[in-house]
Write a structure and sequence with these properties.
Blueprint (H helix, E strand, L loop, with lengths): L3 H18 L14 E10 L2 E2 L3 H9 L1 H6 L5 E3 L2 E2 L3 H9 L5 E5 H9 L4 E11 L2 E4 L15 E4 L4 H12 L8 E4 L2 H10 L4 E4 L2 H7 L4 E5 L9 E8 H6 L1 H18 L5 H8 L6 H7 L5 H4 L6 H16 L10 H4 L3 H9 L17
């Protein structure tokens, strides 16, 4: 269970999202096409937005700009230093039209009354790592009993931790959990203030700097222990501009097809190497699955099942403000299906079953 300050903070945030959702108005204009389409995501360095997924490739290549140049539409990509929760708040306030969001925060926002639709994935099978000091006696998840462990609660990583612990017969109550963002947790580990840190790809940076070794990784294990993320659009924007949404999904689908080609892997990893992430770290992190699997745009049974499990765990942890909702009704696959058909890509990617196996 979340420590009380963190839980109160998350529930208060959900309540403010519900209030903001009643008053938000986006950048789209009533008299026609928007001048600027704003796509938000957490900041990776300062206000720089991370470049990841097929959507990041489309941005680096300038394919959205090219698609909408004749319409006079420009794109803005703000990065939010407050992380995913701030992205959700911006959606609720109508400050952004689209967002890249992890499953937990996206679900918390929608349950709180933020009108969104999930269009396609923007991250699949994100790995989690357990970083410990090089001289630590911790060698496995089971060794965490009674230890002081840091991770960012309220993020999609938090639910990965819950699932990883359960797979090893543990729960958060079996150790002293400390709610820290990654940068603070890394400093705490280096100073000996905590004994272990759960993190995403950033943990590879700690290892490369000699600050930590990796005692556990989800790589090569049950895919249900990995993290998922999706592209959200404000429902009001989609109702006002369905044609624009369809064109954007088509561009992102073309980008997923291009980046799924093994011959483009080096270029893809270089494009994704923003912030302190290096191409070598990205290659290590993503080496357990072909990029074509990770970049699949399909809203398949695996993705639906994972989002459903996230909602169940979020409710169990007391993170939802409002009633659970139907994940299948929230997923809006009409634009993706149209894009796949128009691009003749219906058979490009293989749908995965709820266990992450090819159907």
């Amino acid at each position: 269970m979340l420590d009380h300050p963190s839980r109160r903070h998350l529930l208060a945030g959900a309540a403010s999202l519900a209030t903001a959702a009643l008053t938000g108005c986006g950048s789209a204009q009533n008299d026609g096409k928007p001048d600027v389409i704003t796509i938000g995501a957490p900041a990776v360095a300062g206000t720089q937005q991370s470049i990841m997924g097929a959507q990041g490739i489309a941005r680096v290549k300038g394919w959205l700009d090219k698609e909408f140049r004749a319409d006079g539409i420009r794109f803005a990509f703000p990065g939010f230093r407050g992380g995913a929760a701030s992205v959700n708040q911006a959606l609720a306030n109508g400050q952004i039209d689209f967002a890249y969001a992890g499953d937990l925060v996206a679900i918390i926002g929608h349950a709180a009354g933020v009108g969104t639709r999930l269009l396609m994935p923007c991250g699949r099978f994100e790995n989690a790592y357990l970083a410990v000091r090089p001289d630590s006696s911790i060698r496995s998840i089971e060794d965490l009993r009674g230890r002081k462990v840091a991770y960012f609660k309220g993020s999609y990583l938090h639910l990965q931790v819950v699932k990883i612990l359960a797979a090893h017969g543990l729960a958060e109550q079996d150790f002293k959990s400390v709610n820290l963002d990654y940068a603070t947790a890394a400093a705490a580990l280096a100073n000996g203030d905590v004994e272990a840190v759960f993190a995403g790809i950033e943990a590879l940076g700690l290892k490369d700097r000699g600050i930590a070794r990796l005692a556990y990784s989800t790589q090569g294990k049950d895919p249900r222990l990995t993290g998922q993320a999706g592209v959200l659009v404000r429902d009001a924007f989609a109702r006002r501009h369905p044609g624009i949404v369809g064109r954007m999904v088509k561009v992102w689908t073309k980008a997923a097809n291009w980046a799924s080609d093994p011959s483009h892997e080096d270029e893809v990893l270089r494009a994704w190497a923003t912030g302190k992430r290096t191409p070598a770290q990205l290659r290590t992190n993503y080496g357990d699955k072909p990029l074509s699997v990770r970049l699949s745009p399909l809203l398949d049974p695996f993705l639906r099942s994972q989002f459903g499990e996230t909602q169940r765990l979020a409710q169990q942890l007391g993170l939802l403000r409002g009633k659970p909702f139907n994940i299948d009704h929230w997923f809006d696959d009409q634009y993706l299906e149209s894009a796949l058909k128009s691009l003749s890509l219906q058979d490009r990617w293989v749908a995965l079953d709820p266990l992450g196996r090819p159907e």
